Amino acid sequence: MATRDNIDLFMEGEKMEKTKWGFEPAFVEWLEGVYKDLHRHPELGMDVPWTTKYIRDEAAKLGVLPEENGLDVGAVFVIKGSQPGPVLALRADCDALPIEEAAPVEWKSQIPGKMHACGHDLNTTVMLGVLKTVIEQKLPEKMKGTLKFFFQPGEETLEGAKALIEHGALENPNVDIVLVSHGDADLHVGEVGVFREFSHANSDEFRIELRGKGGHGARPHQTQDVIIAGSRIVEAVQTIVSRELDARDAAVISVCEFHAGTAMNIIPSVARLTGTVRTLKKEVQSLVMKRMKETVDSVAALHGVDAQFEYLVGCPSCPIDDTAEDLIRAAAGKALGTENVKELKTRMGGEDFAFYAQLRQAGTMRLGITPQGETRRPSTHSPLFRPDLEALQAGAAVFVQLVKDYLL
Ligand SMILES: [Zn+2]
Ligand SMILES: [Zn+2]
């Protein structure tokens, strides 16, 4: 019932009350609206025209125009402070995945077969929220230094960071520190994760092709059995990690495909194996590469089959700079409480943010997206991926605080 008392309360609440993350209700409505718009329009890889226009339009409403860098996808914005100082870049990725959405949300993907299942719509919305706050609070008038925003396509395809770097994103003005935020279902809303040394691993791929003389399954002595040779290779490469690397150096070798044969009584003449190698340090990566080739060649020779070994270096590992990561620790501590800043273990997955981290001081933050009190929500790359919308505010609160800490 609408009594006078609760009408007054309601009106006062509308006008005055900020959310627990320190934002006006109108800002939160805008933030969630942006997220839902982006979520409904997922696009893949470097082919993100709708998303690009949306990001550029939102920035234009704030009077911010993209750098003319020769790229017609994504956007780089440069916000100069009134005084000289360091250059901080905040990166958000904006591409989606080729997955049919199954999450029970009313803002479901409107594009069949595509979904923001890694939460890059969330990452983009957080950084657009930071941009909007910085402009609306007139921070550039007081800033000592420059703030850059990288809205980057092609993270999932590992093309985007390279493209932005090639088109000068880290230059003019030269970036000192580059930071990133990514949603994480292992953390609750209001919690963030930080790293030491490395946040992500070198993510490489290998392909092995074995060729031998196939023949009748009843007469193996007349053949060179690629299945036996392949099986020995699967086992032998595991001892590179367990017997040849220092136990304190992380590495993973996983054979993930093994294709051979067409019938139960034919020894095939070809076997193909593929897999992935994850390492952190360059020297470990080089050693694994060398020993895998030697192992494949010698096992193949032992069984009299021909082997072709290809090692494809992929996304580099992501080194974490202590100074950069401490900015996140401090800002997140202030915005969310130090008890909500969780020290995480290095992830053996890849992240193309690493291409920036190889060139500049870099820091990574994982942003909690599972609602408080709920068990873990489906992880990224799941068709059920569904971040809690409060995460948008938590993420923006941390990075607004960080900009103030570092540039004011
Ligand atoms: Zn992903
Ligand atoms: Zn991602």
Molecular structure report:
By secondary structure, this protein is α/β, with parallel strands linked by helices. It is built from 10 helices and 15 strands. The strands form 4 sheets. Strands 1-3-2-4-15-5-14 form a 7-stranded mixed β-sheet, sandwiched between helices. α8 (322-336) crosses α10. The protein starts with a helix and ends with a helix. Mean pLDDT is 95; it is low at 1-10.
Which keywords apply here?
408 residues; Aminopeptidase; seven-stranded mixed β-sheet; four-stranded antiparallel β-sheet; binds zinc ion
Question: Roughly how much helix do the residues carry, as a percent range?
Answer: 25-40%
CATH class of the largest domain: Alpha Beta
Global geometry:
elongated
When the domains are counted, the total is: 2
Here the CATH topology of the largest domain equals: Aminopeptidase
What's the name of the CATH homologous superfamily of the largest domain? Zn peptidases
- What is the mean pLDDT? 95
Taking the sheet with the most strands, its summary is: 7 strands, mixed
CATH architecture of the largest domain: 3-Layer(aba) Sandwich
Pairing-aware structural class of the strands and helices? alpha/beta
Bound molecule types: zinc ion
Beta-strand residue fraction: 25-35%
**What is Rg?**
25 Å
Strand order of the biggest β-sheet = 1-3-2-4-15-5-14
Kindly state the number of beta strands: 15
- Tally of DSSP helical segments: 10
